[in-house]
Design goal:
Layout: E1 2-5, E2 10-13, H1 16-20, H2 24-47, H3 59-62, H4 73-84, E3 98-100, H5 114-121, E4 128-133, E5 138-142, E6 146-149, H6 165-178, H7 186-197, H8 202-214, H9 221-230
Parallel strand pairs: 3-4
Antiparallel strand pairs: 1-2, 4-5, 5-6
Length: 239
């Protein structure tokens, strides 16, 4: 049994409860002395030398416990370049500039793309700041453009559901109100001519031709003739 002699009385230290009963100052001194003795015991056990500092490892043994690092500045810059620069075959990833501002999505909103807006206003995609798809209209804010555009001005595209008779009814309503016509605007002809001329493969050009065949009744005779000439000879569709 251990005893701690204070100025007033003898304190027995035989269990955990009696330790908690000690005053705060006495308890701190007890643990400080116990900690110092425990450190000395550990030093003797692991080093075998009492009160002597351990010598640092030699250069031969030091490399065994260190991770491999870039020691050469050229080697480090080369590694950073490999991480920072993507490979030329990797696709370009950029943030979409189309924002849907309304909780109710317009049925023709699936035809709104940045490429169509850039071709519509003869600007670059990089110059477009944002495209806000509102409930009944599209707002385009670009470097030199700030306009509201109707959903009916956007032609159908590939990659989404094809146009239905409900979409045709919305187009005709818009065109009759604005141009007093039941035919698609001239921009649609310009848009599809651009797609035929910049098609990356025969299959893509053929898919555009099939899409034009679906909307042929709302295209003028002159527009159909221009699109036939713009299409590739090996991928012409019957429209």
């Amino acid at each position: 049994m251990l005893y701690w002699l204070s100025s007033q009385q003898l304190w027995p230290i035989n269990d955990f409860c009696s330790i908690l009963a000690l005053p705060t100052q006495v308890l701190c001194k007890v643990f400080i002395k116990f900690e110092a003795r425990l450190d000395k015991t550990r030093q003797i056990r692991y080093t075998g030398i009492k009160d002597k500092k351990r010598t640092p490892p030699s250069r031969k043994t030091e490399g065994r416990y260190q991770k491999k690092t870039y020691t050469d500045s050229k080697e480090l810059s080369k590694a950073e370049t490999m991480i920072a620069q993507p490979s030329p075959n990797s696709p370009a990833i950029r943030e979409s500039k189309i924002n849907h501002k309304s909780p109710v999505l317009h049925p023709l909103a699936r035809f709104v793309t940045e490429e169509t807006v850039a071709l519509m206003f003869s600007i670059r995609i990089e110059d477009i700041h944002r495209i806000d798809c509102k409930r009944h209209v599209v707002y385009v804010h670009a470097k030199t453009v700030s306009r509201f555009v109707s959903y009916a001005d956007f032609p159908p595209i590939l990659g989404v559901s094809p146009p239905q008779w409900e979409d045709v009814a919305r187009w005709l309503k818009r065109w009759r109100k604005r141009w007093l016509s039941h035919l698609a605007p001239e921009f649609w002809t310009k848009f599809y001519m651009y797609q035929f001329q910049h098609a990356r493969s025969v299959e893509e050009s053929r898919e555009w031709g099939k899409l034009v065949a679906l909307i042929r009744p709302i295209l003028s005779v002159g527009a159909v003739q221009q699109l036939r000439k713009a299409q590739r000879p090996d991928s012409r569709a019957n429209f």
